[in-house]
Design brief:
The complex is a heterodimer of chains A (168) and B (353). With 168 residues, chain A is mainly α. In chain A, 82% of the residues lie in helices and 0% in strands.
Amino acid sequence: MQTALFIIFGLAAIAGALNLLFQRHPINSALSLVVVMMSLAVLYWTLGAEFLAAAQVIVYAGAVMVLFVFVVMLLNAGEEERTSGSRIAYIAGIPGAAAIFALLCFVFLKNKVALGNTQLGGDLSGIVSNITDISHTLFTSLLLPFEATSILILIAILGAVVLARKEL
Amino acid sequence: MTHLNTFEIFLLLTILKIVVVLVITLTAVAYTVLLERKVLGRMQNRWGPSRVGPFGLLQPLADGIKLFLKEDMMPLAVERPLFVLAPIIALGCALISIAVVPFGQQTLYKGVDLFQISDINIGLLVILGVTSIGVYGIALSGWSSNNKYSLFGSLRATAQVISYELALGLSLVGVVLRAGSLSLRDIVNSQSHHGMLSWNFFGGFQIVGFFIYLMAAYAETNRSPFDLPEAESELVAGYHTEYSSMKFAMFFMAEYANMITVACVATLLFFGGANTPFGHLFDGVFNHGFIHAVLPIFWFVFKILMFLLLYIWVRATLPRFRYDQLMSFGWKFLLPVAMVNILATALVLAFHG
């Protein structure tokens, strides 16, 4: 059953990603991205990272992408048109994407032993909870990066407030 | 059932549970509409629906037939695929989240829990996630209708839901801190020791969290007094102006299914779920077989009914907020209070827990 889940949602993710690229309308592309994110969340879950899956759905699919769709709706963006710039993007983009894919494959395959492996869907049948482990790691060994990220986000919020205040 | 293996038993029982829960939820949705019309009528000193069947009890059936048989109008200028998809997303998300709700005490039959479709270790986050996906239904319906009032309604709804989602999530953190788990079953079990006294609302001192949750949830479900997205005096009917027949009915059902979900979550998190309010006082009286199994469900349904009545009561009583009031209430009042609640709960747990 876990393999079936993996195949279904892996294919959904790929189909969503392709649809994202081929759709001309920004809203359709944004919705395809939501499909990709949801499928990835299910894949995370089958790998035993249920908190990551929930965070993916709540933060990315449920908040960030809603804002994207919101902005597209407000700007009332129409369909894209083909220009000479889009042809350059084709020529440069496809080899670039292939190169990044190859690089990632190379890195992951080379460090296969160091990264370790997990059984696909092994964590679905037995109920385990790794939220406690995540928070322990986050607040002990990864405390400095965690706090640095928080301050970064705080700066971004303050920047947004300052920018908005000018107009008030 | 001896020739079936464990997986087949699990699959069959799960499908059976899904069908039963879906049928009960949809019936409950239909009768919540009737309940709302009757109670609203009584509060406004009139009868409410009383013609179809005894006390108007068959009114939902008549409404259903009417909505099915109406002509399904499709305006010319709509974005067709999204226009059709939007009500499906709204109703689907509203119904999915009921899957993680435990309706009674854990009763295992051949390794399958009979009173819960799936016990997920992050059940609470699943409910929050599914509700946040439900926003797409509203946002897309307004945009794809190609109608300015629909768009205004859906923009209002989206902004409102995103803003109040923060307060909603933060108000639940206190409960999660007390239970030490995100599984709804564990959260319910953490409140089961001394009946009413160990509920998070009374014994857990999460009363502040509960009221923040209640207000944020009313805003999340776009219900009065936060029903600006469908303010009929300003926006015709809001995001579902262009919808007719069953597509409109799906939005309508989604709204009431969301109400039921909110009532379920409030019951589970703050009022002990399916636990009796009397603790172990009457254990000797009701401790045999059938009643012992059914009594928790009675309490669960009773608590949900109380929440639905509260919803209707609030709708009959309070006037609608203005948009800036709504935003400043959410961001400047609910959010800070929710944070203070988390801080206080964490401090108390650190010193006494």
